Amino acid sequence: AHIMGESDEQTERLAGNAIHGMSGRLSTLYQDPEMGKASVAAAGMMGLATAGKLNRNDLGPALNGLRSEGGAAYAQTIGTQAQLAVAKARPDLKAGYSIDYNEKDGFSDGLEVNGGLRAFEMFATLGPGDIAGAKREFFDPREKGGSAEVMEGILARGKDGTAVQASKDRLRAWRNAGLTKEQIIARNPTGLDDLKNEQAGNQYDAVLKVLLRNSGAFASGSIEVQSGSDAILKKAFTPAEYERLKSLEATPEAIAAEGGLPPEGGAPPAPGGGMFPGGPFG
After folding, report:
1. Is 190:198 a contact under the CB 8 Å cutoff?
2. Is residue 106 a contact partner of residue 114, using CB atoms and an 8 Å limit?
3. Which of 19, 29, 116, 154 has the most CB atoms within 10 Å of its CB?
4. Residue (of 117, 116, 138, 112) closest to 210 by Cα position
5. Mutual orientation of helices 191-215 and 161-176 as an angle, nearest 10°?
6. Rg of the chain over CA atoms, in angstroms?
7. Nearest to residue 153, comparing CAs of 203, 105, 104?
8. What is the C-alpha to C-alpha distance for residues 181 and 124, in angstroms, rounded to an integer?
9. Are 98 and 91 in contact (CB under 8 A)?
10. pLDDT tens digits, residue range 169-209?
11. Are the C-beta atoms of residues 51 and 139 closer than 8 Å to each other?
C-alpha cells in the first residue's frame, strides 16, 4: 500500500490509499463475532433459496454444517431466512414445518415428524394459490419424500370418503376423551393413519383442483409443472379414474364441479359434481 501510494499513476495512488483505510478492518475481520460466522455454506444456501432451488432433503445436513461453524442458534437463523426466501417457489419448505431440531441429533427433515403427519399438517396451511404459484421442483415426483409424494397421499386417501369419515369419527371420540395428537398415535394402531386421513380429506379438493388446472388442455404453467402434475394424478388414481379426470378437459367449470369448489367468480358448482359417488363430494 505504501509503494502504491507513491506511484505516479493516480489509480495506483487511490488504490494504495484505499488499502491503508481498510487495513485495520481487514486485520481484525475474523475477530468480529458476526463476520467470523459468515460462511460460503450460508451464502450458498441463501443463494439457492432466493433462486427457488433449495432442496428440502439437503436442508438438514446443510444446517448441521452451519451448526458446527457457529452454533445451533446461528444455523436456525440462516435456515429460517432461507425458508422465508424460498417460500413462494417451494411452499413445502415453509418455516415452522420443514426443519426439526433436537440437541442430540441436530437438524433433520421436519416433514418426517410423527411418521410424516407433519407434511399433511403443513399442506393444511396452504391455499390453492400457494400451490398454484409453486415452481416445478414442488411438483417433481422424483424427489424422495417431497411434496409430490405428499400430494399423492392426499389424493389417494382423500378420495375414499368412507375411510375419511370413519377416521374422523374415531378421532372425535379420542379427542373427546382428552387424548392429544401424540397420545392418539402412541395408543391406537390406526391413530396415525386416521390423522392422515383427516388431513387428506380436508385438503383433497384444493390439491385436485390445482393439479387439474396444471395438467389439462387449458394449463398455463411450465412443461415441468404440467408433466409433474400429470404424474401425480396418474399415481394417485386408477387408469379408469385418471381417464375420467382427463375427459373433463380441465375447464374451470368442470374442475370446480369435480373438486366440489365454486368456479372463479363465485358461482355454485355444477350439479352432480364429484367423480366418486358416496365419497367426499356426494
Report:
1. no
2. no
3. 154
4. 138
5. 140
6. 25
7. 203
8. 16
9. no
10. 999 999 999 999 999 999 999 999 999 999 999 999 889 98
11. no
Distance, in Å, from the CA atom of 274 to the CA atom of 282, rounded to the nearest integer, reads 7
Assess contact for 244 and 157: CB atoms under 8 A: no
Give the global pTM: 0.71
> Grid coordinates in use for 31?
475477530
Quick one: which of 93, 95, 108 has its CA closest to 56?
A: 93
pLDDT tens-place string over residues 88-145:
888 888 888 888 898 888 998 888 888 889 989 988 888 888 888 888 888 888 777 7
- DSSP alpha helix (H) spans, the chain: 2-5, 10-27, 40-50, 56-70, 72-86, 117-123, 128-132, 147-158, 161-176, 181-187, 191-215, 223-236, 239-246, 252-259
The number of CA neighbours under 13 Å toward the Cβ of 238 is: 6
Listed in sequence order, the residues at least 6 apart from 120 whose beta carbon sits closer than 8 Å to its beta carbon are 150, 153, 154, 195, 196, 199, 200, 203
Quick check: 122 and 97 in contact, CB under 8 A?
A: yes
**Are 16 and 5 contacting, i.e. CB atoms less than 8 angstroms apart?**
yes
At position 128, the amino acid (one-letter code) is P
d(CA 274, CA 34): 57
